[in-house]
Design goal:
The protein is an alpha+beta fold and 197 residues long. The chain contains five helices and twelve strands. The two termini are 28 Å apart.
Length: 197
């Protein structure tokens, strides 16, 4: 992912301008924490509520083309993210990801609306991020209104190795977005239009 802060771009050396990731469904958040920590991963970003607002053009051209424009509010700050169309690998999902941070989510929201974007989907999750020393990827524990997920992000070879270390295989991988997972959930269970607590 490329992280833009002010006028100076910096590149996250983990994956470059592309993020590669998978999700794994987990039944219990506390058991997942114990599992992750027992494999040598340590918290690098403590559990925090992330509130994500997805934007689209009125004709839904971003969604239809597989692109995403998201504003994340977290810890009093904001992160604006663009994600390009997914490039599906054999078992992983990769896509371009560009991000910039700001201190005022409300102002970014207003700017996006003034540019003609409309709010299309909102979702929340409690996220804890882990990393092991000298490893190129991260393990994320997401507690969402529709369940608990591990997200592994990094090079494909590392994702497979980390998943195996945690007791999972490629059959457990989920490459769908939270929006797609929520649409599937709504078909089975019903609920509000947004995935919020």
């Amino acid at each position: 992912m490329i992280v833009l802060t002010g006028a100076e771009p910096s590149v996250n050396r983990m994956t470059g301008p592309f993020e590669t990731e998978i999700k794994i469904v987990i039944k219990d958040a506390e058991a997942a924490r114990l599992l992750i920590e027992s494999r040598g991963y340590r918290v690098i970003a403590p559990r925090t509520l992330q509130s994500d607002q997805v934007y689209d053009s009125p004709d839904r051209s971003l969604r239809d083309s597989g692109r995403l424009l998201r504003l994340r509010s977290e810890n009093g700050g904001a992160i604006l993210t663009y994600k390009g169309p997914a490039v599906q690998g054999i078992v992983h999902k990769s896509r371009e990801e560009l991000e910039t941070s700001a201190s005022d989510a409300a102002m970014l929201d207003l700017i996006l609306q003034r540019l003609g974007f409309v709010r299309s989907f909102r979702y929340e999750k409690y996220r804890t991020t882990y990393r092991a020393a000298d490893e190129p990827g991260i393990v994320v524990l997401d507690e969402t209104p529709i369940g608990v997920f591990l997200e592994l992000e990094g090079p494909g070879y590392w994702i497979d190795r980390a998943a195996e270390t945690l007791g999972f295989g490629t059959k457990d991988y989920v490459t769908a977005s939270y929006a797609a997972l929520y649409l599937d959930f709504l078909k089975q269970h019903g609920g509000p239009p947004d995935m919020v607590f």
